[in-house]
Design brief:
mainly alpha; Tetracycline Repressor, domain 2; flat; 11 helices
């Protein structure tokens, strides 16, 4: 029989991320996590303080994995690279943005906060003042989190899938084109969404508009 792997914080965080990805944040508990790892719940407390510590650890790891933009790039390209890196990382683990937007976790380590600092630096280089940076950050954050929400099942479940055609079928069959001509016209296009390429296109629109915040 192969020896049991020692329990470590890294193993706990890996298992917690996998469990939360399938069960959601409410389905992540110390008891369930311990069962997944084949240990008693009390054994977890030698490595993590509580569920909040676990969620902070998960978020921290995901943010730490975001590749930083080349600081030598012009500011629009740094915003684009950083935002796209955040989008890709969070979209792979949509339970993480759910933990963030519900204030159940926050990235705290220096490495995890680097991408955010990079964004702020690019905004300042664009000539924005403090309030302009705040507005720019809000616009980019809204695009990232909104895009993930719209392309996943409420921040959990399968990632990267546009709304299935069957969700639009009731509208297709029930709408009266004479009464809602524009809605009827756009429906086929809504079903043809390409999530990442659409995100990039929308991000470029946001970036182009940032100088207006000066």
């Amino acid at each position: 029989m192969a020896p049991r792997q020692p329990l470590t914080r890294e193993r706990i965080l890996d298992a917690a991320l996998a469990l939360a990805s399938t069960e959601g944040l409410d389905g992540l508990s110390m008891r369930k996590l311990a069962k997944t790892l084949g240990v008693e719940a009390m054994a977890l407390y030698n490595h993590v303080a509580n569920k909040t510590d676990i969620l902070d650890g998960i978020v921290d790891r995901v943010f730490t994995g975001i590749v930083r933009a080349d600081p030598g790039l012009p500011w629009p390209e740094r915003v684009r690279a950083t935002a796209l890196g955040m989008y890709r990382a969070l979209r792979r683990h949509p339970v993480v943005p759910m933990a963030l937007v519900t204030d159940q976790a926050n990235p705290t380590s220096l490495r995890a906060l680097h991408p955010l600092d990079d964004l702020f630096g690019a905004f300042y280089e664009a000539g924005l003042d403090d309030d302009g940076v705040r507005q720019a950050f809000g616009a980019v954050q809204s695009l990232i989190y909104g895009s993930i929400l719209l392309s996943t099942t409420g921040f959990i479940g399968d990632t990267g899938q546009a709304a299935p055609r069957e969700q639009l079928d009731p509208y297709v069959h029930r709408l009266d084109p004479d009464k809602l001509p524009h809605f009827s016209r756009i429906l086929p296009t809504l079903a043809a969404e390409d999530t990442e390429s659409d995100f990039i296109r929308r991000l470029d629109v946001v970036i182009a508009g940032l100088p207006a915040l000066k």
